Amino acid sequence: MPRHNSAARSGSVAGGHNTATKEPSFIGKVINNPKISSAVAVLLADAILVSLIIAYVPYTKIDWDAYMSQVSGFLGGERDYSKLKGDTGPLVYPAGFLYIYSAIQYVTGGEVYPAQILFGILYIVNLGMVLLIYLKTNVLPWWALCLLSLSKRLHSIFVLRLFNDCFATTLFHASLISFLYQKWHLGLIIFSGAVSVKMNVLLFAPPLLLLLLKAMDIFGVISAGSGAAIVQILLGLPFMLPHPVEYISRAFNLGRVFIHFWSVNFKFVPEPVFVSKGFALFLLAAHLILLAVFAHYRWCSHEGGLFSFLHSKLTQIKLRFSNPSSFPLRGFNGQKSNSRVLKAEHIITGMFVGNFIGVVCARSLHYQFYSWYFYTLPYLLWRTPFPTWCRLILFVTVELCWNIYPSNVYSSMLLLVAHLIILGGLWMATPEYPYAENTNNKPANTKKAS
């Protein structure tokens, strides 16, 4: 046997072959993996497309001048949110919006064309992060990744309209990548930054809370949530110190009533009903019920349901506090021993479905709001049990409805029907097992063999 091994090694050396396993290079991965090569191709092709759009498609003036007016007031020293206004009305976004657009005004001088270039770069960075998120799962086939770059409306929102939704969406995707790598504290900080640009990101908060409770113990959840809260406090401090009521009431106003004309999803609802408090309460109730039902029967199905999961968490908390001798010693450091690794599919499915439920139940979706969930559509469609041709028809239907301007009774009704069909398909989907192989944590009774 020794002679045979020696001969094998000699033959390997003589033949000039290295038997050691090497990690394939990035180029090798791109060539050998159709999903990676498809993602790279989509990114490069879209970069060219964005350049052509900026060069040849006329810019559409909507909110840019209002943004610049609001930023100019802030840079001029105004800290009263009730006095920061533009030609489209008062400022209604949290403070992170002002800081980002102040930086954009400084770099571009308030000019549109250089701002379009910045937003073009932002679009490609965001698309790259989205592709990375999709590559972390095996839900989509390689060819379906091209759907992520086929939206006319999304290109318009980013490089022809320059909406702040673009930054909120990009920051959210950055936070989601952190969650996929189990960096919950970092992800919460970035997530809070996204909320500081536009509050729609809070639609992801309910499933995110469940994920945090699954991934960490209560001390980890509290510390991560505290980091997110500190971000909001620090960003809003210059406005909250002199005018706290004006800042909180305007930057975090959950009771805004949008103009019926701009509604993409509920244009078929008569305007008196659309603006009524009863309709708002009905949609809110539908939102909460859907979240609770999905949480109980889908997101927490492997834990015995939502109530069983929450009861187990409460029991853990009681046990921790009933043993005071362990509290000073372990405290927040005990978080690691109780952490669990969540599968990428479980994280993405929960976050995307939770946000989609919020979109379905939103009283008014404006055209720029499409960026809230477009990038989740291919994933959601492939999570349904529908055949591929049905998924593609639904994708095209949603895109078509968002490109009809102005929206009408038929387009908004068709959009709602498509949303409900997708939601029904997500309900029919089999819940994935949430936890990865627990490599970090070993059973408590495991002992080293003597």
TrEMBL record:
Provide this UniProt record's keywords sorted from A to Z.
Answer: Endoplasmic reticulum, Glycosyltransferase, Membrane, Transferase, Transmembrane, Transmembrane helix
Please give the Gene Ontology molecular function terms for this protein: dol-P-Man:Man(5)GlcNAc(2)-PP-Dol alpha-1,3-mannosyltransferase activity
Q: Which reaction does it catalyse?
A: an alpha-D-Man-(1->2)-alpha-D-Man-(1->2)-alpha-D-Man-(1->3)-[alpha-D-Man-(1->6)]-beta-D-Man-(1->4)-beta-D-GlcNAc-(1->4)-alpha-D-GlcNAc-diphospho-di-trans,poly-cis-dolichol + a di-trans,poly-cis-dolichyl beta-D-mannosyl phosphate = an alpha-D-Man-(1->2)-alpha-D-Man-(1->2)-alpha-D-Man-(1->3)-[alpha-D-Man-(1->3)-alpha-D-Man-(1->6)]-beta-D-Man-(1->4)-beta-D-GlcNAc-(1->4)-alpha-D-GlcNAc-diphospho-di-trans,poly-cis-dolichol + a di-trans,poly-cis-dolichyl phosphate + H(+)
* Location of the protein in the cell: Endoplasmic reticulum membrane
Write down a Pfam family by its short name.
ALG3
Q: In which pathway does it act?
A: Protein modification; protein glycosylation
User: Membrane topology per the record?
Assistant: Multi-pass membrane protein
Chain ranges passing through the membrane: 36-59, 113-135, 156-181, 187-211, 218-241, 278-297, 346-366, 386-405, 412-430
Positions of the UniProt region annotated as Disordered: 1-20
User: Can the keyword Glycosyltransferase be found in this entry's annotation?
Assistant: yes
**InterPro entries under this entry?**
Glycosyltransferase_ALG3
* GO CC term (a single one): endoplasmic reticulum membrane
EC assignment: the record states: 2.4.1.258
Q: What is this protein called?
A: dolichyl-P-Man:Man5GlcNAc2-PP-dolichol alpha-1,3-mannosyltransferase
The species is: Perilla frutescens var. hirtella (Perilla citriodora)
